[in-house]
Amino acid sequence: MTILRVRDLTVRFGQRGAPKLTAVDGLSLTLRVGHTLALVGESGSGKSTVVKALARLLVPDAGEILLRDRPIGHGGRALRDYRRSVQVVFQDPFASLNPMHTVDHHLRRPLLRSPDRARGANLTVAVHELLRSVSLSPPADFAAKRPHELSGGQRQRVAIARALAPTPQVLLADEPVSMLDVSLRLEILNLLDRLKRERDLALLYVTHDLATARHFSSEVMVMYRGEVIEHGPSDQVILHPAHPYTRLLASAAPDPGRSRAELAEARRTRLDTRASEADHTAERRGALLDAGCRFRNRCPFAMQVCGSRPPTLTAAPGHTAKCWLFDESAVRSA
Amino acid sequence: MTGRTVDTPTGSAVRRPAAPDVILRAERVSVEYAGRHPVRAVRDVTLELRRGEVLGIAGESGCGKSTLAYALTRMLRPPAELTSGSIMFSGRDGTEIDVLALRPAALRAFRWQRISMVFQSAMNALNPVTSLRRQFADVYRTHRPDMSSEQRDSRARELLDMVGIDPRRINDYPHELSGGMRQRVVIAMALALEPEIVVMDEPTTALDVVVQREIIDEIERLRAQLGFSVVFITHDLSLLLETSDRLAVMYAGEIVEYGPTVTLHDAAAHPYTQGLLRSFPDLRGEARELRGVPGHPPDLSRDLVGCPFAPRCEHAFDPCRRVAPVLADPSASTAGRTGGEADLIGRRVACHLHDPLHQESR
Asked: Residues 266..295 of A with a Cβ closer than 8 Å to B: which?
């Protein structure tokens, strides 16, 4: 069941002395109950801006966001209801919790604003219930602590409990584990996965880690400079990437399964291609301003036709890519 | 270049097991953070770095890996204090330096020229209010006072070019560079005086995968070109499996397993290493059971009884809670177990599971 539908979301940021930067350009996505959609891409691709727009921390310049087929509205009850239903877990649990307040305080406040408004002793019960659901027990001990007494993993659990307090239907997890130790990451991701199932949440998992995106989501969307350039079932996108950018991402991810000879070979190929590249930044700015494919300056398959903006084409059933390589007539004439 | 282990690190280790070309040797190093309850962050760590190799040090936050890095470069500051141990450096030119005995002036000359460091946060390692030109000039003004300003400039440009940054950006300030470029600058600065060892503390942790890959490739290329040795510290074991020749896994301030990376990858002997290896999903492989390492490390301000990993270990048995295991060769017989001593050429693990003494009680 679709719970959140986004159509043609566009966010622009003003820049001093330069034209506006389009951080998110016509992005559409749907989040379904009990499913995880992974949004992957490099730093600066616009992933976090999408989260901010969906959490309504910023107002998009264009596009439509529908929660249960209803638009957000511009204020008052509709917006409050939306914000309660769509909650965020931020990247940095060291910055997202207030060092002055106890865990109890962090969880009590959103509970006080939730629809069934527990009071008094019931409120304490509800706080403990939340802590138990994120496996922080004994809950009474954790409730009394302040963030500095907790480890990174425990802090992130508190942040998740806080996001769950207003009983949301959509959870936006913006790089929820990238600040944590590798040994803790899986526990947090397993926790999010369990909560998603238990509470029928729709989950947006924003990450730059392809391996966890593959294992914890049913679908993957790849963003590049504000656009979705590939979208499909997780295994399809990561094992058989269609867009040249996704192929680059997949080849850059650590893959300890490969032998040392294979690694050395891959490294040589990469160094050779990089040596032939011109100044990166100038080229990036240029590519953003003109009308062509944004990846074409880094793309090993660039053709004449890439000077015009590629449409979203089908690479395989249910698997799309914004790339001319999947237009037969374009490839034939190249 | 003869005798280097640059190109075939693992192969040469097998060929010449008797006399590896050791450049830095730390013996039984312990570091304490003073306070009402002193924290013993590094406990009796012995390790050696060979010329031209990448030695990986892996472990969770708080396991003492960064403290160890600071100890190796003598950059510990109070309340941290090196309480015991020795660190010996053997230079390319044959000089033997007792790192812990260096007086302030000699220490200044030793650091950066012999051993330099790349820090995790490039933004904090660079001065935000001065240009790159000034920051490179500072290094040379201190360490090479007889260089002219033209020489300093051209050397700085060379270094930028070497790490893949347009030398015309020498007048840029750190905020004008992307995260990956800043990390390249920090690496260029670490190489400014052609050190023989570069200690890298989480050099790519704050970067995204594509940039991380670029930096790793860059380090690998520069190492092949300049022949320095690397101590590479990170919590990301999957990265070390690719980049390091040998690997030390730290837990609760101790090295719990140590050996050639290939061996650790294929046949990890310590349950903690096995847990770390299970902590990241395989990009292309079949979905497998993923559970990380549940629990948390012990409080290092308390006395540890038995194996520090025992409370989190699924294989813990009777002796683990009573007797602390020592680092030993997992394949050796009881008689051959030397326990944390000199010979660290092969493979070592600190775990009772591999101690023939405890075979019966399992």
From this structure: 267, 270-271, 274, 279, 281
